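User: Is it possible to get a 3D structure for a protein together with its bound compound? The compound here is flavin mononucleotide. I've pasted both below.
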Amino acid sequence: MKYGIIIGSHRAQSQSAKIGSYAQKVLTAIDASSQFYTVDLSKKPLPLWDEGVWRGDDAWKVVWGPMAAQLKSCDAFVVMAPEYSGMVPAALKNFFLLAGRDELGHKPGLIVGVSSGLGGSYPVVELRMSSYKNSRLNWIPDHMVVRNAEHVLNGDVSQSADDTFMRARFEYCLRLLGQYGKALALVRESGVVDFKNHPNGL
Ligand SMILES: Cc1cc2nc3c(=O)[nH]c(=O)nc-3n(C[C@H](O)[C@H](O)[C@H](O)COP(=O)(O)O)c2cc1C
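Assistant: Yes, that's possible. Here is the predicted structure of the complex:
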């Protein structure tokens, strides 16, 4: 199983990146043969979408082509979505303009809302409402909300009861994601998916 780890933060030293690394460690412990492709949108910022994407401009082929190929080869995604002013960061929304059905279609995704305080729910709600319509990314029913992010998921040993809960829940969600990864491969291989006649969702 190849996992795409998407870090939606704009900050170079982000909690989202820390949590993405933690997810990778847990997934490796679950299955040592797991493979990963990480997109950290702060370290490799993508230009804002423009019509050159639809025209297939060379500049976009250079910027987006290699990333798109990697995303296509993934079976499942873990998306770290920090809460910025009660919203999903612009870099992550831009990512969902660029990544579409070819990269994400009918693959499972785990949303991880991230907050340094007691927020983190708004990004979950926003991604569940948008982001999937044309891409057909399949958000799994369970999600994570990592609150007080600085104080949890640090190192290998739990530091508190909240940390212990978070670690157990994260492992559970990641195990579920792996099973959805296997199950939705059957949907993609079924021959029913028809992006030619149904390119966009409603
Ligand atoms: C521009 C900006 C806006 C923010 N707005 C919120 C917010 O509305 N709610 C919240 O819980 N945290 C907010 N935060 C704090 C983030 O939760 C915090 O930075 C956390 O570590 C997740 O972001 P990171 O992955 O970039 O570190 C905001 C942070 C930034 C940089």
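Residues 9, 11, 14-16, 82-86, 114-117, 119-120, 149 surround flavin mononucleotide (CB under 6 Å). The mean pLDDT is 98.
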